[in-house]
Design a protein that fits this description.
six-stranded mixed sheet, alpha/beta, Rossmann fold, single chain, globular, 6 helices
Length: about 240
């Protein structure tokens, strides 16, 4: 599922400003995310974390510049591919579609019934996320953690160079978190770039190369020095 070599981009924001009505959500943000690194994005509730990644994805009409710098290597074919997992999973519980069909449709615009068998990439993806025994189960019948793992597999099947994740560990038990983290570590080791919103300081400390605090503006912080009063993202003053 993860190729041996990935063309992960560097990402640069210059004076990015976004306002919704009278509320300023991103206030002249300038930052650079170097390729091949895993970046944790933290901040208080309502501080603009999800707004930031949606703006990077081109979903908000912002001011300022967002520049993706992809490595120019002819043997790497994934330049320009971005994988995204939103915070709210886009599943309709009533949709009569199986895990098998969902993964197949993520790989092709052709109807799934024109494809025979499972491509190797899909088989590998199912092995990685341990959903092989759920192959013919409706996605609406999966648990929250199983859906989260399915979304991660779907994002990786696009052969991305950049993964943008909005709290991807939500709903996962400890085993599910470990499995997902191992997949992300392999992706980074192969050269991929990861931007991940996360509220778990332990995960950020142990696995992210850099951490940025977003609260309308942005600044890099050292998660090892964080002083948590209660829940780090529920109140002002949680970071010192």
């Amino acid at each position: 599922m993860i190729r041996k070599q990935i063309a992960g981009p560097s990402l640069r924001l210059e004076n990015v400003f976004f306002q919704a009505g009278n509320q300023i959500l991103l206030n002249n943000i300038s930052v650079e995310f170097k390729n091949g690194n895993w970046f944790g994005i933290a901040g208080p509730n309502g501080g603009g974390k999800s707004t930031l990644i949606k703006t990077i994805l081109g979903l908000n009409n912002h001011q300022g510049s967002i520049i993706l710098d992809w490595p120019s290597s002819p043997e790497l074919s994934n330049a320009g591919n971005i994988g995204y997992i939103p915070q709210l999973l886009p599943f309709d519980d009533s949709l009569p579609i199986s895990v098998r069909d969902y993964l197949l449709m993520s790989l092709s615009t052709k109807p799934v019934w024109f494809r025979r068998g499972l491509p190797t990439d899909v088989e590998n993806a199912l092995e990685h996320i341990q959903l092989t025994d759920r192959l013919d189960r409706r996605i609406g019948d999966l648990s929250g953690g199983e859906r989260q793992r399915l979304m991660l597999a779907t994002a990786l099947l696009q052969n991305p160079g950049l993964l943008i994740l909005d709290e991807p560990m939500t709903g996962l038990d400890e085993q599910g978190k470990t499995e997902s983290i191992n997949i992300l570590k392999k992706f980074r080791a192969a050269g991929g770039t990861i931007l991940m919103i996360e509220h778990d300081w332990t995960l950020i400390r142990e696995h992210c190369d850099h951490c940025f605090w977003v609260d309308k503006t942005i600044r890099e912080i050292d998660p090892r020095t964080i002083q948590v009063q209660q829940t780090p993202f529920d109140q002002e003053g949680a970071v010192s």
